[in-house]
């Protein structure tokens, strides 16, 4: 079927220029456009009008159906783009509202991401938990709509991890967030083993558990190890060498679980993070934190 808007002149009655709307030159007014009444079944007029144009009418109807159903898709694409633009500009709450309104897995995942970022890095303390709870709810909706989406699975882990940080380690441990967040990360990696964000999150999970519980208890209780953290950090840099957050998180994790011998590598990673361009508001946040951590090494 010829795509709507690419027809040859006069090919589809009703879509040609006005002076060529008529499909038949017979009758008292050969330039009159066809109306619905002309298609009344069983009349000589309808037989005459439709005799040579049935295929054209069918194509017109098909094109009309395609056009009607293309509108929501085009709207969704425009809206998800607007939501991503809002995210990149640092308008995270607006991005969340725009993305959530799409009622799609992709939209819910982006909304959860925006709320998790705003809730963790920007929101006032009193607002953090409500925002992060909403992020968790939207991430769950994203998975419910598309269980095969690595992004949706990752946003479950992202929202869960940020919420756990907001309630403190004791409550997070008691409510099962330590093991739950790892399960969510690994669910994303099962779908896409090369998802850099999930690989980075797994690295930081190992580093944070080791830092919080110690090497022995972290390994015996949760299976967290320094080596797993290092391996996943290195893999993340291979997958996303241009991502500022990859270098910053590696530096942060290494500073937490490494020793004095690792200070040079921490400095190198922070320097690499700062050398990368700031492409969006999230990069700005990470850039500021990397700057502060690098300055603290010199104190």
Keywords:
299 residues, mainly alpha, Serine Threonine Protein Phosphatase 5, Tetratricopeptide repeat, 3 domains, 0% strand, disordered N terminus
Explain what this protein looks like in three dimensions.
The chain is mainly α and 299 residues long. It folds into three domains: 1-86, no CATH class; 89-193, Serine Threonine Protein Phosphatase 5, Tetratricopeptide repeat (Alpha Horseshoe); 197-299, Serine Threonine Protein Phosphatase 5, Tetratricopeptide repeat. It has 14 helices and no strands. The protein has helices at 44-51, 54-88, 92-100, 105-122, 125-145, 150-167, 169-174, 177-191, 196-213, 215-222, 226-239, 244-257, 263-275, 281-297. Helix 9 (196-213) packs antiparallel against helix 11. The longest helix is centred in the N-terminal third of the chain and has 35 residues, at 54-88. The radius of gyration is 29 Å and the shape is globular. The N and C termini lie far apart (70 Å).
CATH superfamily of the largest domain, by name, is Tetratricopeptide repeat domain
**Separation of termini?**
70 Å
Total helical segments = 14
β-strand amount: under 5%
Provide the structure class: mainly alpha
How do the SSEs run, as a string of H and E?
HHHHHHHHHHHHHH
Count up the domains.
Answer: 3
The biggest beta sheet is recorded as: none
Helix content: over 70%
Q: What is the approximate shape?
A: globular
State the CATH topology of the largest domain. Answer: Serine Threonine Protein Phosphatase 5, Tetratricopeptide repeat
CATH class of the largest domain: Mainly Alpha
